[in-house]
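[User]
Protein folding is very new to me. Any chance you could explain this protein sequence and its structure tokens? I have pasted everything here:
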Amino acid sequence: MAQTKMIVVAFLLVAMLVVSTVPSAEAFCFPDCYNRCANGKVGDVSCANMCAQACVVPLTTPDGTPLASLADETN
């Protein structure tokens, strides 16, 4: 009986760990929104403003690049 409880507790702890490491949908909101709106253009201010209002925007990309520096690039 005690061994079964230990296995169940261990399984629940592993399940909680796995769920906590999955990235949330909000993490991908801004890039997806911007790509759909800007359609390949870089530095589209109107799309950036709209997506910033629609999404919770991080200050940096996953590789550490500041998002503000991406808006300064032109093609």
